[in-house]
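User: I've been trying to design a sequence by hand for this structure and keep getting stuck. Would you show me what you'd pick, starting by listing the structure so we're on the same page?

Assistant: Good idea, let's start from the same input. This is the structure you sent:
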């Protein structure tokens, strides 16, 4: 009887992890509190998508398209691993047609875009993305203006496969009120120039796909270690782990859309596919004043990750 019970529980767990959770995407609202954020940028929204690994317009993709139709943002960002094959380009374009922004969509490559076995040439993907208005920021930067404030938005090519050139996109001076960086992998933090940015958005780790409550990801698939598999890497955590002085950036890592693995085990647990809508929030208790040149180093505050989730079938909210 005991063996039969264990067998049933094991089969049920396998079925949930492989057949259910990977196909139950959620729209998650995350509040990201930044010190000295100008009042006009309070509730500036960023739609974050990563690791779609699109191959076809299947069940998961249709659900994601439905979630995208339920929201809008000031900007949308795609942090790499967009397709798994050239035939995935058309379904990707269909997904992007549901993205609604007031400023634009910006993207960088991941390691999948550099694998000839998946994409013989990423020029075709680049042309298709640009044809629908997506701005590629592979080791490039741009300056956005919102409510009279300048936002410096930069992107690097995939750090995991060694294509990132952060030196090329690091601002020479902190002339923007907000410095954002897009990078496929949190490995971009290994470069000390990453501290020049206030907020870094990444993917690649899928946040481990399998997460243990109160312990975190089983692995991160980064050179940083398991701790980089968390959805939020705080400035204090980065300073402590990398033995650096503050200020350090806030880093948000997407759990991704697709699920990767091996045959018979392509699993997720406590880590569903996620369409992330980030709400930038002004840190209310700052010890220094905001300046037009950007965040002053004395404005670096201790940040605490507080995960408050409202359990609904497809929409949850977190505050960090």
């Amino acid at each position: 009887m005991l063996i039969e019970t264990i067998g049933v529980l094991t089969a049920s767990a396998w079925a949930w992890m492989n057949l259910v959770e990977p196909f139950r995407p959620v729209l998650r609202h995350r509040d990201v509190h930044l010190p000295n954020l100008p009042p006009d940028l309070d509730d500036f929204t960023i739609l974050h998508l990563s690791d779609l690994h699109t191959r076809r317009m299947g069940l998961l993709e249709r659900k994601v398209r439905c979630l995208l139709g339920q929201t809008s943002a000031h900007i949308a960002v795609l942090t790499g691993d967009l397709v798994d094959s050239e035939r995935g380009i058309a379904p990707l374009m269909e997904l992007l047609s549901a993205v609604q922004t007031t400023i634009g969509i910006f993207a960088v490559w991941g390691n999948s875009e550099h694998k000839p076995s998946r994409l013989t040439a990423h020029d075709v993907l680049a042309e298709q993305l640009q044809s629908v208005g997506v701005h590629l920021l592979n080791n490039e930067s741009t300056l956005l203006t919102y409510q009279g404030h300048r936002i410096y938005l930069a992107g690097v090519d995939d750090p995991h496969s060694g294509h990132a050139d952060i030196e090329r996109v690091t601002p020479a001076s902190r002339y923007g009120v907000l410095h954002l960086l897009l990078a496929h992998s949190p490995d971009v933090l290994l470069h000390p120039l990453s501290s020049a940015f206030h907020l870094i958005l990444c993917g690649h780790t899928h946040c481990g796909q399998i997460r243990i409550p109160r312990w975190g990801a089983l692995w991160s698939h980064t050179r940083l270690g398991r701790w980089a598999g968390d959805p939020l890497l705080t400035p204090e955590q980065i300073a402590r782990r990398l033995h650096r002085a503050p200020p350090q950036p806030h880093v948000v890592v997407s759990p991704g859309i697709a699920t990767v693995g091996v045959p018979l085990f392509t699993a997720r647990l406590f880590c569903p596919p996620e369409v992330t809508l980030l709400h930038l929030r002004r840190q209310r208790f700052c010890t220094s004043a905001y300046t037009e040149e950007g965040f002053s180093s004395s404005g670096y505050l201790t940040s605490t990750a507080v995960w408050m989730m409202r359990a609904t079938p497809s929409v949850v909210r977190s505050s960090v």
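That's my pick for every position. To get oriented when you compare it with your attempt: The longest strand covers residues 26-34. The two ends are 46 Å apart (CA to CA).
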